[in-house]
């Protein structure tokens, strides 16, 4: 596993398509979070990605790009996270788009900087669930099977429990974590304050906080200490 991601407990995810003023960005970058992940489900362009990267680079925090649109791939990030939606209803989100990207850009791909993520989408109402036609209504046994598939058969360094916009089933998430031996379990969705962050941190390896940055910055900042204090 990449040593950088192996140490992450808390990550802020910033959307290039959502406005964030300089004061708020400074607070996020100096918060003590382990990394800034740049990405979004829609509206991500080369220009707004470049702009956000240049602003984050004023600070020393690690900055990675979660690739959701090939036209928005920007050089200069520390790592490039490549989502593979394991429970997608269309093969394009498992392998199709990835193969087309390699066919077109293989000569310029920085392979040593790529980190694949095995997404398991668990909120049927999320944009990502609709875009990928994900089978998001999984029970604990099914979610655990997807996680084990990612860990044991695919050898993915990250399994990502994605609830995107709602606090997930924190009884189901541990069922996924118990199946993992090598993969790191990321959790994203519905982290709005210190309490929800602590609850999520207790059942995963890395907590990703996104929407709260834009809806209640002070509460979002409190999630860092909440997660770092949980083991």
TrEMBL record:
<protein>
    <recommendedName>
        <fullName>Heptaprenylglyceryl phosphate synthase</fullName>
        <ecNumber>2.5.1.n9</ecNumber>
    </recommendedName>
</protein>
<feature type="binding site">
    <location>
        <position position="41"/>
    </location>
    <ligand>
        <name>Mg(2+)</name>
    </ligand>
</feature>
<keyword id="KW-0808">Transferase</keyword>
<dbReference type="GO" id="GO:0000287">
    <property type="term" value="F:magnesium ion binding"/>
</dbReference>
<comment type="subunit">
    <text>Homodimer.</text>
</comment>
<keyword id="KW-0443">Lipid metabolism</keyword>
<dbReference type="Pfam" id="PF01884">
    <property type="entry name" value="PcrB"/>
</dbReference>
<comment type="function">
    <text>Prenyltransferase that catalyzes in vivo the transfer of the heptaprenyl moiety of heptaprenyl pyrophosphate (HepPP; 35 carbon atoms) to the C3 hydroxyl of sn-glycerol-1-phosphate (G1P), producing heptaprenylglyceryl phosphate (HepGP). This reaction is an ether-bond-formation step in the biosynthesis of archaea-type G1P-based membrane lipids found in Bacillales.</text>
</comment>
<dbReference type="InterPro" id="IPR008205">
    <property type="entry name" value="GGGP_HepGP_synthase"/>
</dbReference>
<dbReference type="InterPro" id="IPR039074">
    <property type="entry name" value="GGGP/HepGP_synthase_I"/>
</dbReference>
<keyword id="KW-0444">Lipid biosynthesis</keyword>
<comment type="pathway">
    <text>Membrane lipid metabolism; glycerophospholipid metabolism.</text>
</comment>
<dbReference type="GO" id="GO:0046474">
    <property type="term" value="P:glycerophospholipid biosynthetic process"/>
</dbReference>
<comment type="similarity">
    <text>Belongs to the GGGP/HepGP synthase family.</text>
</comment>
<keyword id="KW-0479">Metal-binding</keyword>
<keyword id="KW-1208">Phospholipid metabolism</keyword>
<keyword id="KW-0460">Magnesium</keyword>
<dbReference type="GO" id="GO:0120536">
    <property type="term" value="F:heptaprenylglyceryl phosphate synthase activity"/>
</dbReference>
<dbReference type="InterPro" id="IPR038597">
    <property type="entry name" value="GGGP/HepGP_synthase_sf"/>
</dbReference>
<feature type="binding site">
    <location>
        <position position="15"/>
    </location>
    <ligand>
        <name>Mg(2+)</name>
    </ligand>
</feature>
<keyword id="KW-0594">Phospholipid biosynthesis</keyword>
């Amino acid at each position: 596993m990449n040593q950088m991601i192996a140490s992450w407990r808390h990550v802020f995810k910033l959307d290039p398509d959502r406005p964030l003023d300089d004061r708020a960005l400074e607070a996020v970058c100096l918060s003590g979070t382990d990394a800034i992940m740049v990405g979004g489900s829609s509206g991500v362009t080369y220009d707004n990605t470049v702009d956000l990267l240049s602003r984050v680079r004023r600070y020393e925090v690690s900055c990675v790009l979660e690739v959701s649109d090939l036209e928005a791939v920007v050089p200069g990030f520390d790592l490039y996270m490549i989502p593979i939606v394991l429970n997608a209803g269309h093969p394009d989100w498992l392998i199709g788009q990835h193969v087309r990207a390699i066919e077109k850009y293989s000569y310029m791909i920085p392979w040593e900087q790529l980190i694949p993520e095995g997404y398991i989408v668990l909120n049927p109402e999320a944009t990502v669930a609709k875009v990928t036609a994900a089978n998001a209504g999984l029970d604990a046994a099914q979610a655990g099977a997807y996680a084990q598939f990612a860990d044991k058969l695919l050898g993915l360094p990250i399994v990502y429990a994605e609830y995107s916009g709602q606090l997930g089933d924190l009884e189901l998430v541990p069922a996924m974590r118990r199946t993992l031996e090598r993969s790191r379990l990321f959790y994203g969705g519905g982290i709005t304050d210190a309490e929800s962050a602590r609850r999520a941190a207790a059942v995963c390896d890395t907590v990703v906080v996104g929407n709260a940055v834009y809806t209640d910055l002070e509460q979002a900042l409190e999630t860092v200490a909440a997660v770092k204090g949980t083991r």
